[in-house]
């Protein structure tokens, strides 16, 4: 109580003048409060407008496909399995590659198509179609559909497959646009049975070299690998006078490799 009276003696010479100041202060406070409320309302309105514009932009972007162009029209009965965008011909402009499941059914399930599109007047224009590089839907044996994905990396189109049963296999193949053709440039094929063996073939077609290795494996009763022993390794020399396999004619795991230093059958 003393401190309150003391403050009034210093800052308010009389009770009347103190009352006037108090009323004036309250009026000013009310004025500022109204102003703040209006400002908050305006900010909320601006925020709502900004959010609406952002959502509209997002919705517009969602209508665009990979690469910023409109989506490729999917043919009737087709299903898009995997797609990727990247520069495949070195001109600084992206292309698009798509693996489709088709309604065409054969001995190994539904046939697949690989299509590559280039940009033309702001739209995707079909460049090339290939049947074979993407394996059919039941080509993976007991593992089912063998196709995993496609990617575009450093100017190359890469395809990945996996299948088998107790004995499993894994393929990766890379194609590049060279001298007007889509040529196989690299391949890795692996075959393995857990806790038994693993075997790998790698091919570098640009340099005409390959490598083949085989390991035996042993595991604990719980299936944990405890040992891997190299039992075979060999360098493979490819016949550079033979043209590289072309995308249009390629079937993973079934395209023969022509070697200089072996008569054994090898396949990409």
Protein model, in words:
This protein has 268 residues and is an alpha+beta fold. The chain folds into two domains: 2-62; 134-267, no CATH class. It has two helices and 13 strands; from the N terminus they run ααβββββββββββββ. It is globular and about 60 Å long.
Question: How far apart, in Å, are the first and last alpha carbons?
Answer: 97 Å
Which strand order does the major sheet show?
A: 5-6-7-8-9-10-11
Number of self-contained structural domains: 2
Strand content: 35-45%
| Gyration radius, in Å | 35 Å
**Which class of secondary structure composition applies to the elements?**
alpha+beta
Q: How much helicity do the residues have?
A: 10-25%
Give unreliable regions as ranges.
Answer: 1-41, 43-63
How do the SSEs run, as a string of H and E?
HHEEEEEEEEEEEEE
Average pLDDT value?
81
The count of helical stretches stands at 2
User: Main beta sheet: strand number and arrangement?
Assistant: 7 strands, antiparallel
Shape: globular
Present the secondary structure layout.
Blueprint (H helix, E strand, L loop, with lengths): L1 H10 L3 H48 L16 E8 L8 E12 L2 E12 L2 E8 L16 E7 L2 E9 L3 E11 L2 E13 L3 E8 L4 E11 L5 E13 L18 E2 L8 E2 L1
Antiparallel strand pairs: 1-2, 2-3, 3-4, 5-6, 6-7, 7-8, 8-9, 9-10, 10-11, 12-13
What would a concise description of this structure say?
By secondary structure, the chain is α+β, with helices and mostly antiparallel strands. The protein is 22% helix and 43% strand. It folds into 2 domains: 2-62; 134-267, no CATH class.
